[in-house]
Amino acid sequence: MAKKRTIRSIPQQRTPAREQEPAQRVQNFAEVNCGYTLEQALNEAERCLLCPEPACVAGCPVNIDIPGFIREISAKNFRGAYDIIAKSNLLAAVCGRVCPQESQCERLCVVAETLQPVAIGRLERWTGDRAITEHWTNVPYIERNGFSVGIVGSGPAGMACAADMAKAGCEVAVYEAFHQPGGVLRYGIPDFRLPNDVIDAEIGNLRKLGVRFECNTLVGRLFTIEQMIDELGHDAVFIGTGAGYPSMLGVPGESLNGVLSANELLTRCNLMRARDFPNYDTPIPLGRHVCVVGAGNTAMDAMRVCLRLGAQKVCCVYRRSEAECPARAEEVHHAKEEGIEFHWLTNPIEILGDENGKVRAMRCVRMELGEPDESGRRRPFPIAGSEVELQTEQVVFAIGTNANPIIGQTSKLRLDKRGYIEVDDNLATSMAGVFAGGDIVTGAATVIEAMGAGRRAARSIKRYLRIRDFDEPRTEAGSLFGIDLNEQNFARIRLA
Amino acid sequence: MTEPDRAAGFEILKREDFSDVAYSLVVHHPRMAKAARPGQFVIVMLHETGERIPLTIADFDRQAGTITLVVQAVGKTTKEMQQSCKAGSVLHALVGPMGVPSSLTGRRKVICVGGGLGVAPIFPQARGFKENGAYVIGVVGFRTKQLIFWQEKFETCCDELILCTDDGSAGIKGFVSDGIKLAIARHRDIDEVIAIGPPVMMRACAETTRPHAIKTIVSLNPIMVDGTGMCGGCRVKVGDTVKFACVDGPDFDGHKVDFHDLIMRLGRYAAQEKTAAQRWSENCRMKDQIVPAVRASPSPIPTTSDLTRELLDHLDPFEQVLGG
Ligand SMILES: Cc1cc2nc3c(=O)[nH]c(=O)nc-3n(C[C@H](O)[C@H](O)[C@H](O)COP(=O)(O)OP(=O)(O)OC[C@H]3O[C@@H](n4cnc5c(N)ncnc54)[C@H](O)[C@@H]3O)c2cc1C
Ligand SMILES: Cc1cc2nc3c(=O)[nH]c(=O)nc-3n(C[C@H](O)[C@H](O)[C@H](O)COP(=O)(O)OP(=O)(O)OC[C@H]3O[C@@H](n4cnc5c(N)ncnc54)[C@H](O)[C@@H]3O)c2cc1C
Ligand code: FES
Question: How buried is B213 (Cβ within 10 angstroms: 0-12 exposed, 13-18 middle, 19+ buried)?
């Protein structure tokens, strides 16, 4: 083993990633952050102190062995690095790109006490990308157990659950309403942050595990959750339908032409390829001046998409201050570089139209911050008499989403007050054999949390079906002669 | 071990032309045929680069495992479908049934109204009411005699059928709202009117029944993308609430719907729809040598389409599209 790394001996500067220049990249949809080269990855890996009791791991929602995989990169055992990540995270190339590392692993990195934190996300991405180009897949020997699991929704939660259930030997079908799988990864997050090839590669890996995707399938309407168990022969069901029911603000003028949700804009642009109109048939609204309301990841994506569609001026209107902005730091930084105009502490009160019913301006009021509210963030208050009018031709709402009502409308599942699916600690719903996770349980969250929920549900489903779970740490206390007492038998095979 | 994902596309078994602008497609989808209820719709994509367009399930046959769509060729996609959909060809995507099924029980006497592209969609409702024991008065409207279709189908499930044509070449001369007036004059005990067609027509129907305080349900047809409640593009004003037509509807109380709002919003892509239709018909004229150039897969570094930029400069002439 090489000599011990200390804060003084490691490269002091965080290795910058290659990026497309702002002026160039607003003209295209290619990736902004081009990732590390091999040398850069090796250099950055050198910056990890390889702490024996790493703080960063606790910051990762799925507890990736971070120093473990970085050590393997330094040892040039790249496949080994990938295997370590893949043990906890099925979507390395995705999460390396879209996780809010600055508030998770990198926030707790010990190096960050003195220098800039190790670029864990970029290293994860580099490893994930390498796996894709080298076609590494971890397809284990799978012994079929005769169980069948139906998964509703092909976002990160559904993908993660599908992978684990397939590895456990179940037959897995993923039902997706859209004509392409991937959930928000596909329709929401634009190519310049997460290229389609990456999603295709991850979906391809699931197919290699034997997972079957049935797109164009709206569960609840084509068949119900109850029918999945009673008629389609699924022994267990996982629901990961996301939280995509966009909120509007409720200010006058919202039905004017030129007002739309970020979801609509992004779906048209990303999934339907409207940015390539008229080579693709779906149109997309175009405004020279665009105001996007909100400052989360969705808002950043919407603004940057508008720039790439040719808007001359794009403003972000957010009622709190920059400190409360919930988007990933990298996205805000990139948005600023690209020339987005930020109007912090500003809240829309009315959208004004012209005689043809098209947006012409948005009236806003300036805000100030008061005491912290239940979310712990300081509550914004309007400042009397501070109204301003922003000229704009388009208003995009990116102010959050609610629970999609379809599953609730069509099943007897118990929902919570806000319409999300109610689950217990094991992610079991009120219906036997039916589990749920991801945004449809928590409300809009993150890719990694949705993925973590999918895996957690998979563990519960294995317990429910009494399939031996090799991933679950077994407690000594609960075992007799090393055999887990909770297990009725080892690999329970369903007799047809 | 791996079963392939659904075979490429959804097969069209039969096509029938009603006129130059209207045609029906019978599509194989046993599961959908089983699940479909009157009032529901599907979303169709003709090909990989196509748009998602909503179409009502105009009929379904559970035994045969088919659904029937009746389409009016009004723009790029519906005209292209008219040209390319044949028995044996496939639709790239077909998802549904979507929307809340119409409520068809507990009525004794109803009027089912269909005009323009709403004639076919009203059929399953009329049949459903009949099956539930209601007295069904059908009112269907066409511009002229040559455009009439499905008259026999309606006759089998309607106790009375009032045919209306704009020019009086068949049935009564007048709009469907005149047909409703006639029916109301004949029957004092109508529980409900259900109307499907272009927004202006549905508005006229709602205005006809308002003075009589007869409950009037309309099936709204705003622009949709996903049809699953995810984009909000289909939002409509009903009373003082905003509803998403794809998941909360498409049926709403016609006396509460803000039709002005609906009509305004239907026109929001008029300029681009025109570009698409023009470009397509030009391509058709050049015929036969078309396709590859248009359908080329996007280049590795996609650039913002020049045409899109061009459009931006000529944005506007706001066009009010009344539909149908
Ligand atoms: C624009 C945008 C940008 C984002 N950026 C980031 C980011 O940078 N980093 C990050 O960590 N998170 C980000 N998020 C959040 C993250 O994408 C979500 O938290 C995550 O995708 C949730 O995963 P999920 O599997 O629960 O649901 P989703 O990804 O929403 O997937 C649900 C899937 O289920 C399908 N579905 C829904 N209902 C049905 C039904 N009835 N039948 C069949 N299928 C159905 C949907 O079509 C969809 O494909 C972003 C979200 C958006 C919208
Ligand atoms: C619930 C519902 C049910 C419908 N049922 C039928 C039916 O049974 N038969 C039928 O012929 N038509 C039906 N329509 C209308 C049909 O969807 C449109 O005529 C079609 O989308 C037009 O597409 P285009 O490319 O041919 O024409 P375009 O030139 O693109 O548009 C023509 C007009 O159709 C409307 N339109 C365009 N795109 C959409 C869209 N994605 N969603 C909804 N409306 C759009 C606009 O008002 C536009 O002005 C229905 C619409 C809805 C919402
Ligand atoms: S069509 Fe997207 S929400 Fe209704």
Answer: exposed
Cα separations (Å) of A436 from A85, A162, A445, A447, A453?
Answer: 24, 13, 15, 15, 8
Which of B211, B236, B265 is the endpoint of a domain?
B265
Give the pLDDT confidence score for residue B321 in this predicted structure: 31
* Number of domain units in chain B: 2
- Nearest Cα of chain B lies from the Cα of A311 at a distance, in angstroms, of 9
DSSP 8-state class, residue A487: -
pLDDT at residue B26 above 70?
Answer: yes
Tell me which ligand sits closest to the C-alpha of residue B228. 3
Do A18-134 and A148-244+403-465 show the same overall fold?
A: no
Residue B284 lies in a domain: no
Q: CB B228 to CB A248 under 8 A?
A: no
Q: A18-134, superfamily in CATH?
A: Alpha-helical ferredoxin (1.10.1060.10)
Q: What does the domain layout of chain A look like in residue ranges? A: 18-134, 148-244+403-465, 245-401
Asked if the model's pLDDT at residue A225 lies above 70, the reply is yes
For the cut 50, the answer to whether the pLDDT of residue B256 exceeds it is yes
ipTM of the complex: 0.84
Tens of pLDDT along A25-55? 888 888 888 889 998 998 899 899 898 889 8
DSSP-assigned states of every residue in A267-320? IIIIIS-GGGTTTSS------SEEEEE--SHHHHHHHHHHHHTT-SEEEEE-SS
Q: In this structure, are B49 and B113 located in the same domain?
A: no
| C-alpha to C-alpha distances, A360 to A352, A387, B163, nearest whole angstrom | 6, 16, 45
Average pLDDT over residues A417-436: 90
pLDDT for B285-305, tens place per residue? 766 554 444 444 443 443 444
Cβ(A401) – ligand 1 distance below 6 Å? no
Which residue is closest in CA terms to ligand 1's atom 48?
A: A183
Atom index in ligand 3 nearest the CA of residue B54 equals 1
B193 beta partners: B111, B216
Kindly indicate whether the domain formed by A245-401 is annotated with CATH number 3.50.50.60: yes
Evaluate whether the domain defined by A148-244+403-465 bears CATH number 3.90.226.10.
no
Whether residue B68 has its Cβ less than 6 Å from ligand 2:
no
Q: The pTM is what?
A: 0.86
Are A279 and B98 in contact (CB < 8 Å)?
no
Q: Tens digit of pLDDT for each residue in B93-119?
A: 999 899 999 888 888 899 999 998 889
Same domain, yes or no, for B94 and B113? Answer: no
In CATH, what number is assigned to the domain containing residue B52?
2.40.30.10
Q: What is the pLDDT of residue A473?
A: 54
CB contact under 8 A, B302 and A215: no
B246 CB near ligand 3 (under 6 Å): yes
B323 lines ligand 2 (CB under 6 A): yes
Q: Do B12 and B82 touch, CB atoms closer than 8 A?
A: no
With the most atoms of ligand 3 within 8 angstroms of its CB, the residue from B226, B236, B266 to mutate is: B226
